[in-house]
Amino acid sequence: MSITHSQTFQRFESPFFMLGWGISTYDALYGMQAWGHTRTSGADGNFFFGKVSDAKLDALIRAALLRLRDEHLFIPLHHQVRPWAMKPGVETLHRSNDQFEGRFTSIK
Prior knowledge:
- The protein is mostly helical.
- About 30% of the residues lie in helices and about 5% in strands.
- Helix 2 runs antiparallel to helix 3.
- The radius of gyration is 21 Å and the shape is flat.
- About 5% of the residues are buried.
């Protein structure tokens, strides 16, 4: 059902849709850019399936991002990325401090 539903709204054939979204950086950029900006060939509006174009909203989003940049309202110091992969022969627990506490076993 959900696959059929998502294909329907991605073809702009449904005025209603439900979309789960998680933003790893916890900032508003991805949501504003993906859901509120006029759809372009890039990231702008890439999840905006409402077929609406609002030049004033686009300008507000751009102005907000420029203000954040120009006023130095926050300075990101670190972004932790935890790449994890699994393969045969390695066993470990996922620790929040990235401490490896696993063991390697031979692969037969």
